[in-house]
Every structure is written in structure tokens, then in C-alpha cells.
Amino acid sequence: MTEKKLPIPGLIYFVLMILFLYLPIFILIVFSFNDSVILAFPLKGFTFKWYEQLLQARELLLSARNSILVGIGSSLVATLIGALSAVAVTRHHMPARSFFLGVSSIPLVMPSIVLGVAMLVLFRRVLDLDLNLWLIATAHVLISIPSTILIVMARLADFSHNLEEAAMDLGANYWVTLLKVTLPISLPALIAAFLTAFTTSFDEYAMTTLITGTDTTLPVYLYSLLRFPRRLPVAVAMGSIIMVVSAVLVILAEKLRELGTTRPKKENEI
Amino acid sequence: MVNKIIEFTNVSKQYRERTGETVNALQPANLDIYEGEFFTLLGPSGCGKTTALRLMAGFIQPTSGKISIRGQAMNNVPPYKRPVNMVFQDYALFPHLNVFENVAFGLRIRRTHAEEIRRRVHEALEIVQLVGFDIRRPSELSGGQKQRVALARALVNEPAVLLLDEPLGALDLKLRRAMQIELKTLQQRVGITFVYVTHDQEEALTMSDRIAVMSGGNILQVDTPVNIYDRPTTRFVADFVGETNFLTAKIQSIVPGETVKLAIGSDLVDVRHRTNGIHAGDIVTVAIRPEKLALIPNPQNVEQISATISEITFLGTDTRYLVTIPSGEKAAIRVQNTGKNKQPTYHIGEQVKISYEMDDAQILTN
Prior knowledge:
The structure holds two protein chains of two kinds.
Chain A: H1 8-32, H2 49-56, H3 58-91, H4 97-104, H5 106-109, H6 112-126, H7 133-158, H8 162-169, H9 174-202, H10 206-210, H11 218-225, H12 232-262
Helix pairs in contact in A: 1-12, 2-12, 3-7, 3-9, 3-11, 7-9, 8-9
Chain B: E1 4-16, E2 22-34, E3 38-42, H1 49-57, E4 64-69, E5 72-73, E6 84-87, H2 99-109, H3 114-127, H4 143-155, E7 161-165, H5 173-190, E8 193-198, H6 201-207, E9 210-215, E10 218-223, H7 225-230, H8 235-240, E11 245-255, E12 259-264, E13 267-272, E14 283-288, E15 303-314, E16 318-324, E17 330-336, E18 351-356, E19 361-364
Parallel strand pairs in B: 3-8, 3-9, 6-7, 7-8
Antiparallel strand pairs in B: 1-2, 1-4, 4-5, 9-10, 11-12, 11-14, 12-13, 14-19, 15-16, 15-18, 16-17
């Protein structure tokens, strides 16, 4: 972005940082193409067979699908609840405001293993429910809510309440204001909240493993694969795919955001 | 100035603090604002001027009393149903919309025809001299330009009253001066009633047809800029608007409607009788502007008070003298350095007489 040349120490720092962050990921991808069951150097040869086996691994693919469904579902609900709570907290005279905020951020500091045990007791002993994906999704909503509230709240606190008053002053009632001013301005935060919630759900292990019934999510399934060393390279291939897909998604989201900010150039019509 | 456009009848506003105590943001107030005038609410922060404005806009509801706009009761009418528009202190432009869409916002809500929206938005942008800025984002505009967009966004709806909450507060001094004149010209051109909130007395004097000076939730005086300056009724108004000397005086006698004889320092002087409710023997405060006091003892038709010069400050166009009268009170005098009739030079400690014309002093009510 800057035209200036990077100073040498800065450049070294940058390269080291990138290596530190991305070397493990890079190694993962390299081993996913390595023609050996044992994950160790020296590399044996190039192969696609782990990816071919992956396509045959029904249970692995099923758990990936479960993870995506649970992730999307729980993130949508968590984002909705988080956004509404954030509006209530920042825009209305809410009684017991700080109490509410404190209580809703408990899952953030509570070890998820403890939450898992609590949920297991609640679902099985108290409510006597069969463990299924719906319950996992519900539990994921719970642990995602603190971050969605905080993310949307930060955005709402960031833009002046005057904007909403200005909309009302110009003739918009409460709902039109919410739709035409509050939501569009908070959209980046809503997306960020959704993505954060999705990530939380997608890699949640400790709690999910405790409340898993017959169907399970990807992290729990991958961990169970460790008991079968011969299957490990398949898990590595799966990991590589997830890595690449998420990288593409992040880059796309960033591009979209950039487009969003420079869009006015075309809006000349009307 | 014929029809009342905004009418406050015993309007008050109380807030309940978190601690449970109530704060009187506006004491029961009566206020009439007439069609087509530039009306200013002037006062220091916390005086209730913004509360009054927000009551007009409908963002808050009065605790008691009645607000009418164009003869219609406005209590419990939400902001989006009132024939007023507001220009906010921080402009409150919608960051996700470009200039055109910001200005068009109100018209779109009212489902105006697209062709008419285009025409009216461009008219409004022309009025505020922002032709060609349609597709800029608010973040790409300077403070002054944002200000103009905010104005256009309000004016495009042709409101009965335009409410302005310290709209020039964030601009630098030079731009502020230019915008003051521009706003005043604009108001005269479009003929819309402006209700303007400011804490800047100079701004208020420059722009307004009438000013309401407020303090502590009370409206102290409503009058033209000239009368607010020359005939303040209270010490607060005299002090807040411009520089003033306050001299303690004892009333000797009153000729109703003519003159009041006062003892100031060691002298007996006359002041025009304009203040009600004062009696012989009362101790009162007299306000005299420094520029209305003179140092040259010119004994004809003027009132004189003996004094000693205690400070001389040369200010370029003026020289400011600080004198002490025998009672120990100090008074400031500004003498223009005209050069024509060369001022005699004075020095500190010199015994002099200060003089004023009878009409230029004002007895204040407590």
C-alpha cells in the first residue's frame, strides 16, 4: 500500500512473523500431498490418494457437513440475539444493564469443559433429551452470544445516536430507522459477529465432545481419528481443505468490504 | 412577523438522575416564536437551550405544559410527524449514504416521485453551493461541506421551522464567521423560521432577529439583539453578552418615567428610569458598557463620577482604562484611538472623572 520502501529490520520482522503464523499451516498442506502414512520428513513423494480416500470417508464428510450446518445455524441465531441485545443495551434505558452484560459474558470466561458437563447434566438428567445436533447448536449459540453482543455493541457505541435521531427527524419511524440507518451502518459488525460465532462453533471441541450423541461435529470426529494412525493423513487432507476454503472466504470478505466502501463511484444515476 | 409558529405554554422538563434526584432542565417557560424570524436560544452549557430545542423537535416530551407548532398541539407527537427539521451539532450525516442520498433521505421516506426527488435535491444542493457533490461520501467532505449537506438535508423537506443545534460549533473561527453571514442570508432568502441554539453571544448578536437568553433552565430575557445588549434586565444577561461594568448604587429619588437619582461612589448621578419595582433607598446594580463611558470631563449633559486610574492597556484600536471609584469598585473604560481629537494622556494614579450619557446606563433587577 505504501510506496515507501520497507526498512530492513521491519522487513525481517515481517518475514519472521509470517513464518511464525503460517509455517504450521504450510506444513499441513505439504503433508497432505505426501505419499506416506507417517507424518515425518523426508517427504516420500507426491500423491492425491489422501484426498481420494477423503471422498470415500463418509463419516468424516458427514461430520464436516454437521459442523457447517451447526455453525451456520448457531451463528445466525447468536448474531440475531447479540444484535438485539446490543440495541437494547446501547439504545434504550435498560434496567439492570450492567448485570445483564455481566451475566451474558459468563460463557466467555467459563471453561467450556465445565459448560459441557453442565449441559450434559441438564440435557440428559434434568430434561431427559436424546443428544442430537439441535442440542449442540443450542449450546454453541450460548457460547457465541458474548462475542456477538460485544462486537455489535462496539459498533453501535461507535456511531452517534444522533444518526438515528436525524432519521426520525426526517420522517422515519422506529422500524424504518432500524432498517435504513441502524442496520446498514452496523452491517460490517453483523458480518464480523456472524463470522466470529461461526469460528467459535466450528472449532469448539471440549464442550461438544461431552454432549455428542450419534451425530457429531468435525473437531470431535477428527480427534477420534487420532486413535487410528493410518487414517491420520486423511484428517490432514481435510484440514488443508478447511484451511484453503477459510483463507478464500476471508480474502473474499475483505474484497467485498473494500468494494462496499468505494461503491459510490457508480451510484451516480438517480 | 405576524403568526406565532412555535408556542410554549408553561413548558417544563425534568430529568430523573440515576441517583434519584430530579434535575430541572427547563423551568416552566412561555415562549412565542414568530413566522419567518431568526430566533436564537443563547446561554452557557447546561442552561436548557438544547432541551428547549429538543422539545421542539420532539426527541423529548415536556414534563408539563403545552407545545404548539403552527397552532397544533405537539405533545406526544413523535419527531417523524412534526413539521420541523433539525441540523445537528455533529451534522449526523449518514455515513453509509452519499451526499445525494443523504439529502434525499426525507423525501424518499415520504415516497416522493423519483423525478421530483432529483429536482428538489439538486435545488437544495444549489442553495448550499454544493452542486456536483452528489456522489461524495460524508467522510470525503470537510467540516464546512458537511455542515452544508446537513443544511440541505433539512431544507429540502421545506420544514415550517428549521432547528439548528450549535451548527457552527465544530468549525474554525474564520469559517464560522463566513458561515454566520451565509446562514443569515440563507434564512432571509428561503424565509423559513430558524431556531438557533448557541453559547456564542457574538454569533447570536450577529445573526438573530430576536434572542432568548437562558440560564439555569430559565428564560431570562427575550428581545432584539440591540435591546439585549443595550438594555439587559438582569445581571446575568448584561454579563453574558459583552463586557459590562457593574456599579453598586443607592437610589436617592425617582422621577417616574424620567430619571432616577443615584449615589455611586462619592457622586450623585442620574440614570434614565426604565426599570420597574425599584424604590428610593434601594441598593441596586447599575450596568454600563465600557465603550459608553468616557474619560474626558465634558461637563455638559453628562453624568460624572470621580475615579482614580489604576490600569491602562493599549489595545491598538482602543485603549482600555481600569479606574477605581471611591467605593472601591472598579470600572473598565474603552476609549477609541481615533487620532482626530487626540486623547489626552493619562497615567496611573491620576484623579479623573468618568462620564456617561443618562440613557446608556441600565438599572438591573435582582
